[in-house]
Amino acid sequence: MKIVLFCLLFAAEHLAAQVLLVQDMTTEQIRALDRNRTAVILPGGILEEHGPYLPAFTDGYLSQRLASEVASGIAARPGWKVLVFPQIPLGAESYNFLGGKASFPGSYPVRSATLRAVFMDLAANIGEQGFRWIFVAHVHGAGLHNRALDQASDFFHDVYGGRMVHLWGVVPVIGAWGKVLETVPDAAKKEDGVSLHGGMDETSLMLYLKPELVSPAYRRAPIHTGATLDESMNVAHEPEWPGYVGSPRLGTRELGEKIWKALSAAAVEYSLKVLDGDDPAKYPRYGDLLSKVPAYVKVDQGAIDAEKAIERKQSEWLSGKGLK
Ligand SMILES: [Zn+2]
């Protein structure tokens, strides 16, 4: 028994030693890393309204946890190290745009061009230092957001020849979440409807991962949903819309655990496949799929208009000050 315990402790310590936090490292330590056998992890996170029961950093907490589980999955490979960056709490196109609302308490998105620029800048610096593998852990469903991260990933591949993948944006990873939802009883599926945001699934995930941040009032949450995508979008357009679409009261810790474990396992499996040489281009991307759905194209257009309005205000102020 003692020997087993020792081996387990040794394995855990060994794993921890392979996961490195870039903010704690010296120049020499970073220089010494084998570029071909070091995976860089960029955890993202959007500050975004999630209605009256869930915290604004719901997607950020999911991204944080995903980053740490993917890091452990890769570090378990003999000879590999993982370099984890501090969390970047920036994302684009918060879900209040579902209801055509440009501003909402809890939502602090950046423009999609800003998001793309941040991840391109980081990718460029990581690429200049010769690293070959970057995994982005950024859980948030909007089209502009996902395509911005995909584009930054393509930039890294085309210019630096390495691989950068936005994990949550590929169908094999995000699809694992959807597959678990298929196993939910029909009555619950019907009640949750086309849930889109802050409903049964996200409430369940937070009850599993961060229960202390879920308002107990979720148990009495009124249902705001539709039976079709268009109906759900209409619900979000109501003037008193509380910020979620679905039925949060159906959330359970058990469902959250099931969704989480499926999603996390799919992300680790996909990451390892990419490290084995699998070409990410052969998997469909969620952001591209959304751009073929007219209702989402409309949501994206609303977000683009709001981004342009903010950009205009900023550039007018800048040019008034003689700045570029
Ligand atoms: Zn969310």
Features:
single chain, 324 residues, alpha/beta, five-stranded parallel sheet, 5 strands, 52% helix, globular, binds zinc ion
Percent of residues in beta strands: 5-15%
Query: Structural class per helix/strand content?
Result: alpha/beta
**Major sheet size, sense and barrel closure:** 5 strands, parallel
Bound molecule kinds, no repeats: zinc ion
Helix coverage percent: 40-55%
- The residue ranges in which pLDDT falls below 50 over 5 or more consecutive positions are none
Secondary structure: elements and pairs:
Elements: H1 2-18, E1 19-21, H2 27-31, E2 38-43, H3 58-75, E3 81-84, H4 112-128, E4 133-137, H5 143-160, E5 163-166, H6 171-182, H7 186-192, H8 200-209, H9 229-237, H10 253-275, H11 286-290, H12 294-320
Parallel strand pairs: 1-3, 2-3, 2-4, 4-5
Helix pairs in contact: 3-10, 4-5, 6-10, 8-10
Bound molecules: zinc ion.
The site of zinc ion has 4 residues, from helix 3.
Short summary of the structure?
The chain has 324 residues and is α/β, with parallel strands linked by helices. The protein is built from 12 helices and 5 strands.
Describe this structure in words.
This protein has 324 residues and is α/β, with parallel strands linked by helices. Helices cover 52% and strands 7% of the residues. It contains 12 helices and 5 strands. It has helices spanning 2-18, 27-31, 58-75, 112-128, 143-160, 171-182, 186-192, 200-209, 229-237, 253-275, 286-290, 294-320, and strands at 19-21, 38-43, 81-84, 133-137, 163-166. A 5-stranded parallel beta sheet has the order 1-3-2-4-5. β4 (133-137), α5 and β5 (163-166) form a beta-alpha-beta unit. α8 (200-209) packs across α10. The longest helix is centred in the C-terminal third of the chain and has 27 residues, at 294-320. The protein is globular and about 55 Å long. 44% of the residues are buried. Zinc ion is lined by residues 50, 58-59, 202. Zinc ion binds next to α3.
